[in-house]
């Protein structure tokens, strides 16, 4: 039996007469930052969310912690994402990644896209960052942000990882890949960023979800997903240039002095994956490369779901209904969980022998009887197991643990394939209202957004005590 206690989760509200309802959540696990999307398209940013501190005993209620400082992002906003800024230069003395929050919005009646960048400062406050950009279709305005001169259209979707983010535009049928790096300080304790547009992908089929994780870009399509390596997209095409030089300095230290010697050098357009620009490179001009969605030029790989036959209500003839990949969650470095529009979860394993080589993928279907509507994955590298939270979109959330396995595409062992689909349900939580969104905080904590617009934080300490934080409403929990 699990003992349950509850208390109110206190978060600062915007200084408005009435707070707009919450529509969705974003959470950054490294800094425990929380973003609340509101119905008026504003965003509330909370750094270092810690809704409780452990009680001294199980019989005591959790001790409140200092209230995080609210940063309000004014409307409009159409999509947002967290991103980690990893400094590629160890000599700079900055080793810890900085947290960046990016917001996209329409501008000039949708004729352009406005990017706003908020950096989490050491004072635990999100502030707007100054951005340097030199490409002709990117323009920085100190009051607004970065103006990207492309049509916003119906909607855009952002997905970020480390130093890289991607934006998908439904109306333009394009995906843009951007690199961000820290260029310095602004003198007031803030950070100056450098923004580079690296690649454009022309889409020939609809994209229903997008994920950027590590060195991979994954697109959710009909009946499957498409996997790209980020390195060719960010670095650009490698080209050879002929230059005359009087001195050739080779990497091994050998120096040959000649006159009128042509040197053949391979040059990357945009530096490396971390956003660095090599100062010794022959050409420093930033160029964005262009690919087709179905092109194999950048080592892309498409992997399909298993086909499903569905009976029509008015006909006995079976037909194939396209299944959409609606959610992509990183499970490990090269393993992902895919939720399809039919409510089933697939395990995607990716094998890359070396950067730039072809991608091989392996897709497995999780055997479960629940029609999943919401999927949330916690990547905890400190344990061999992974925690997965699923919900049917009604009144229950199920916590599952999956042991760390090798999802290599070259694994043909039947026993290994059985391990890929073996999961254990460790907890089931029932709510008094229908569930709209779920976000994992830790292996024993989850945020739940109810459809009656109530935010709940559930914590289960080693299956002994479950702390519930909520604005209002009732909730019960029991082990399966």
Tell me what you see in this structure.
The protein is an all-beta fold. The chain has helices at residues 230-235, 414-420, and strands spanning 3-7, 22-28, 33-38, 43-46, 71-73, 79-85, 98-107, 112-120, 126-128, 130-132, 138-141, 145-148, 156-160, 164-169, 174-185, 191-202, 209-213, 216-221, 224-229, 238-249, 255-268, 289-292, 301-304, 309-311, 318-320, 325-332, 335-340, 345-352, 359-365, 374-378, 385-391, 396-403, 424-431, 435-442, 445-450, 455-461, 465-470, 475-478. Strands 6, 7, 8, 9, 11 and 12 form a 6-stranded antiparallel beta sheet that branches. Strands 10, 13, 14, 15, 16 and 22 form a 6-stranded mixed beta sheet that branches. The protein has a 5-stranded mixed beta sheet with strand order 1-37-36-35-34, with no helix packed on it. It is globular. The model is unreliable at 53-64, 240-269, 271-284, 309-318, 406-421 and 461-480 (pLDDT under 50).
User: How is the quaternary structure best described?
Assistant: single chain
- Gyration radius over CA: 24 Å
Give the mean pLDDT: 75
In DSSP terms (H or I, runs of 4 or more residues), the helix count works out at 2
- How far apart, in Å, are the first and last alpha carbons? 10 Å
Structural class: mainly beta
Number of strands: 38
Shape category: globular
Low-confidence runs of at least 5 consecutive residues: 53-64, 240-269, 271-284, 309-318, 406-421, 461-480
Quick structural overview:
By secondary structure, this protein is an all-beta fold. The protein has helices spanning 230-235, 414-420, and strands spanning 3-7, 22-28, 33-38, 43-46, 71-73, 79-85, 98-107, 112-120, 126-128, 130-132, 138-141, 145-148, 156-160, 164-169, 174-185, 191-202, 209-213, 216-221, 224-229, 238-249, 255-268, 289-292, 301-304, 309-311, 318-320, 325-332, 335-340, 345-352, 359-365, 374-378, 385-391, 396-403, 424-431, 435-442, 445-450, 455-461, 465-470, 475-478.
